[in-house]
């Protein structure tokens, strides 16, 4: 029995799915109204998360004092074989969130977890540990998702994603949207509470509103998440210490500190990712035996300011517009030079069959406009072509094993070939890229997108009108990718279907469209 809006009203006991072992507690005013989550699997454990919030849309409803929370991890959904347990303190300073770094578990195994406090039990979630170091696992199933705007649509795609039996879910940014009610409301009754987020209390409230969604809660219960952020977790199109609009610059680092703190409080992240003021180190590597190494990066905190800003928007503002000398400067970086070196070190030292770069935006070049009036979107990698070329050249020169780049942000499905020179049709392909559209955030229509593809032959597939996610199954010889799209994100019960299928052959660069 999976959770549905309004269907579970009377059951006082914990419900458990027969197939997946995912439990859902009775909805309503309860301590665990925001659900549970797990994340960042390693061979002997993972992080488990919850937040006590009996009144989530009114500040949480918790007293200003610590609360003891009991946690349990079991080898079965019924908790007959509990293998780890303990107590954690939910502190007011962390809005009564709990982050437990569970260890001592078996590699490559599924576990179930739950929390208990105040005589109440949480939902039951499940998580899988990573394979042992050196083990060549037969497969790794990953979901790629991003961009879930509460006001644009329902999160029904998550209900379908929860049923995919993934080993992990990679979320690449825009978990919340920081702005208030838009001028054009998309869905009646699905409106952000409050105005634009600027303070810690406002960001906390926005996360709480999003986390009340039952389909999102279900996806968190289904598998461990590997998360990074993009811009809307703070402010649209911000770059390092520069907001998207110059008028917002005074006090921006205080706003960024509040946003980063609220992000950590609501994500299944380790203590190492906890921010200190406006700074947080969230780039990290996760190994799944010898089958895959996942390189998770942060393309917001350290990037150079956006190039070619429109004068009326001020320094640092992103735009789609004509070229400028600044865009081409070799010292500009999307990741910051320290993170670039960290990524190169991780790629150079990898012995994995597949190297997966988990980043935020469209990596491939995307030419807009005619050749003598070319236009570039400066918030994506097109705003940082020298940094992109450095990474491409490194992958090509070091012959990085089977690089796969994952991204989001653009609210479109893309399958692209990454070439050493996008201007040369005969240039070799060195990597493949997949963008998983959005969970609900609207984007272009295909009438706008398709005419641009002729100038971008390395973009092998593109669709701007469908919402959904990507499903990847990495194997020792091949990786299969499916773009999964809901029929209509404005319908809560919309079905899902496979939009396109791809295959990557180990040892052979370039994607193949298979269906």
Question: Can you walk me through this structure?
Answer:
It is a single chain. The protein has 515 residues and is of the alpha+beta class. The chain has a single domain, classed as Alkaline phosphatase D (PhoD) (Purple Acid Phosphatase, chain A, domain 2, 4-Layer Sandwich), CATH 3.60.21.70. It has helices at residues 156-162, 200-211, 214-222, 252-266, 337-348, 385-398, 446-449, and strands spanning 15-16, 23-24, 36-42, 45-51, 67-74, 82-90, 97-102, 110-117, 120-121, 125-128, 139-145, 168-171, 225-227, 284-288, 292-296, 320-322, 354-358, 375-377, 403-407, 413-419, 429-436, 459-463, 467-475, 478-486, 496-505, 508-513. The strands form six sheets. Strands 13-12-11-23-24-25-26 form a seven-stranded mixed β-sheet, covered by helices on one side. A hairpin with a 2-residue loop joins strand 8 (110-117) and strand 9 (120-121). Helix 5 packs parallel to helix 6. Mean pLDDT is 92; it is low at 1-28.
């Amino acid at each position: 029995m999976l959770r549905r809006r309004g269907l579970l009203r009377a059951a006082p006991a914990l419900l458990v799915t027969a197939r997946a072992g995912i439990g859902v507690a009775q909805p309503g005013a309860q301590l665990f109204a925001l659900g549970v989550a797990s994340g960042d699997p390693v061979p002997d454990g993972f992080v488990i998360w919850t937040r006590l919030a009996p009144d989530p849309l009114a500040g949480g409803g918790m007293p200003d004092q610590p609360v003891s929370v009991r946690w349990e991890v079991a080898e079965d959904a019924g908790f007959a074989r509990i293998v780890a347990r303990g107590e954690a303190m939910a502190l007011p300073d962390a809005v009564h969130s709990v982050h437990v770094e569970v260890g001592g578990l078996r590699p490559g195994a599924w576990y179930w977890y739950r929390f208990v406090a105040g005589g109440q039990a949480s939902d039951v979630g499940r998580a899988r540990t990573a394979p042992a170091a050196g083990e060549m696992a037969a497969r790794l199933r990953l979901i790629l998702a991003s961009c879930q705007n509460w006001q644009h649509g329902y999160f029904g795609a998550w209900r379908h994603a929860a049923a995919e039996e993934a080993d992990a879910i990679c979320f690449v940014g825009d978990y919340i949207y920081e702005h208030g009610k838009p001028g054009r409301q998309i869905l009646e009754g699905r409106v952000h509470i409050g105005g634009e987020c600027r303070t810690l209390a406002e960001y906390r409230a926005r996360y709480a509103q999003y986390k009340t969604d039952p389909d999102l809660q279900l996806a968190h219960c289904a598998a461990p998440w590997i998360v990074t952020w993009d811009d809307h977790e703070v402010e649209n199109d911000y770059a390092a210490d520069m907001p998207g609009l110059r008028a917002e610059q005074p006090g921006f680092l205080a706003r960024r500190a509040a946003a980063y703190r609220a992000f950590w409080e609501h994500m299944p992240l380790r203590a190492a990712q906890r921010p200190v003021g406006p700074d947080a180190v969230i780039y990290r590597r996760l190994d799944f035996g010898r089958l895959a190494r996942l390189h998770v990066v942060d393309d917001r905190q350290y990037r150079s300011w956006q190039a070619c800003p429109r004068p009326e928007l001020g320094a640092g503002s992103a735009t789609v517009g004509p070229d400028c000398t600044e865009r081409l400067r070799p010292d500009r970086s999307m990741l910051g030079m320290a993170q670039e070196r960290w990524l190169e070190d991780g790629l150079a030292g990898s012995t994995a069959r597949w190297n997966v770069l988990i980043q935020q935006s469209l990596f491939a070049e995307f030419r807009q406009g005619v050749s003598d009036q070319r236009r570039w979107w400066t918030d994506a990698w097109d705003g940082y072509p020298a940094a992109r070329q450095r990474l491409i050249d490194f992958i090509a020169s070091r012959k990085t094993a089977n690089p796969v780049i994952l991204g989001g942000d653009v609210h479109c499905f893309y399958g692209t070939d990454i070439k050493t020179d996008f201007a040369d049709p005969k240039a070799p392909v060195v990597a493949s890229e997949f963008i998983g559209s959005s969970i609900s955030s609207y984007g272009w229509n295909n009438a706008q997108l398709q005419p641009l593809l002729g100038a971008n032959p390395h973009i092998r597939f593109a669709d701007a009108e469908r919402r959904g996610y990507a499903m990847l199954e990495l194997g020792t010889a091949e990786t299969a990718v499916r773009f999964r799209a809901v029929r209509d994100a404005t319908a809560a019960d919309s079905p899902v279907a496979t939009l396109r299928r791809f295959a990557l052959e180990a040892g052979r660069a370039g994607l193949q469209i298979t269906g």
